[in-house]
Amino acid sequence: MSVHSSTEQSLLEQGRSTLLDLLGRDWEVTVRPEDGDEGGDATLQIKSGDGVYAEMLVEAASRVTPKDAAGALTSKAHLVRRVSRFTRLLVVSPWISPMTQDALRRSGIDYLDLTGNISLRVSRPAIVIHTQGAERAPASHRAVSNKPLLTGLKAGRLVRLLADTLPPYRATELAEGARLSLPYVSRLLDTLDDQLLIERDGRIIVSVDWQRLLRARAEQTDLLRSTEPTGMLAPNGVKAVLKRMENWDPGYRHEVLVTGSYAARSLAPLSVGGQLMLYVQEHPLNVDRVAEELGLMPVSEGADVLILRAKDRSVWQRPMMVGGLWQVGLSQLATDCLSGPGRMPAEGEKILEFMAAHEPVWRKTDLSHLGEPTLF
Questions:
Q1: How much is the pLDDT for 91?
Q2: What distance in Å separates the CA atoms of residue 127 and residue 141, rounded to the nearest whole number?
Q3: Which of 101, 262, 268, 292 is close enough to 354 for a disulfide, judged by CB 3.0 to 4.6 Å?
Q4: C-alpha distance from residue 240 to each of 83, 204, 275 (Å)
Q5: Backbone phi, psi, residue 217, to 5°
Q6: Are 238 and 314 in contact (CB under 8 A)?
C-alpha cells in the first residue's frame, strides 16, 4: 500500500499542511520519516500551544480499499495499540472512498485525504476533526489504477448479473452470462473484492453484498446523463399514458419499460408526483414512434414524461410485470432511482428495502434462470 518515496514525501507534506490549516497558528504539526522498524511511513506529532503533544503513526498510501482497511491496516492498528495505547494510526491518501472511510472508522483508524475527507480523534491534547470532501474519485486518482471502475455499460451488465443471481459461480460463468470478456470480468471482480462487495473462496464467488453493490454502482452513475432523456408532455395526463400502455400489444414490452418514480411507487410507495420515465431501445426513430403511439408532444421544459435511451441490452433483462405494466427489473430500478435526481435516491433506498423483504421472489437461484421475468 505504501507509495514510493518522492510521492510519499509530497503526500505527507500535503497532509501535514492540511492539518496545520485546520488547527491554526497556535499549533505545531511535524512529520518525521520512519526507518521502517515501527511499521509505518512516518510519525506525525501534533503539539498544542501549551506544549501538550500527541504522536501518530502514519501510513501513506496512493490507494486504500475497504479490504485494506479491514485487513492489513486493522492488523497494524492493533499492533500499534499493543506497543502504545496512546498512539493511533493515521492513513493519508490522495482520496479515500466513502466505503473505505466507513471501514477505517469501524476499526478505530484515523484518516485524511487531500480532497478534505478527514476523521481524526486525539484524547490529549483534545482534538476531534471530521470533515467531508469528495465522494467520488478525482480524475487524476482514477487514472492511477488499471482496474476497471463501476462505470460504463459493461460494468452495469455485470453488476446486474451479480445482484440478480445467487452464488456460487465462477468468473467464466459470469463472463458467458454477461457476454463479456473473461479478462475484463476478472479485473472487475478483483475491484469488487477489494471493496468487500463480493467474497471469494479461491476462484469461486460465494457471496455478493448486492445492496452495497447497487449503491456503489449508482454512486458512479448519473441516470439522466447516461440515458440522454427527451422531454415530453402528456396532454391528457400521465394516467392516460399509463392506461394506453396497459392496453398495448404484448410485443411492446420489448421496446418500452417503465422506470423511476412511477415504477418504484408501484412496489414501495414513498411519495406522489414526479416524471414518468420510459426506456426505449436506443434509436432516434423509436423515440418518435413511441411518442406518437402514446400521444406525447416534445417540449424543451415542463416535461411530465421523460423518454430514456437504453444503450445496453441489460436494461431489458429480467423485466417485471406490475399492475399490467412492464417495468425494468428490480436491480435496474434500484440503480436508476439511486442515481437519479431529486427525491429519487430516497425512492431507491425504499426499493432496496422491498428487495430485501422479497429476495426469494426476484433473485434467481442460478444463471440458467436469468431469462425468466418477475411477476408481482
A1: 93
A2: 29
A3: 268
A4: 71, 49, 14
A5: -60, -45
A6: no
pTM to 2 decimal places: 0.75
Which of these, 79, 133, 87, 94, lies nearest to 110 by C-alpha position? 87
For the purposes of burial, counting CB atoms within 10 Å of the CB of 55, is it exposed (0-12), middle (13-18) or buried (19 or more)? Answer: middle
Q: For residues 197 and 366, what is the distance between their CA atoms, to the nearest angstrom?
A: 19
Q: So what's the pLDDT on residue 373?
A: 72
Q: Cα–Cα distance between 55 and 39 in angstroms, integer?
A: 14
- Cα angle value 254/234/223 (rounded, 5°): 55
User: Nearest 5 degrees, angle CA 359-CA 362-CA 368?
Assistant: 120
**Hey, which residues does 33 pair with through a beta bridge?**
42
What amino acid is encoded at 297 in this protein?
A: M
Tens digit of pLDDT for each residue in 90-147?
A: 999 999 988 899 999 999 999 999 999 999 999 888 899 999 998 877 766 554 455 5
Cell numbers 416534445: residue: 298
Amino acid in position 274: G
- Which residues are 28's β-sheet partners? 47
Strand partners, 91: 59, 111
Q: What are phi and psi of 172, to 5 degrees?
A: -65, -40
DSSP 316-367: GSS-EEETTEEE--HHHHHHHHHTSSTTHHHHHHHHHHHHHHTHHHHSBSSG
**Cell representation of residue 350:** 425504499
Does residue 2 have a pLDDT over 80?
no
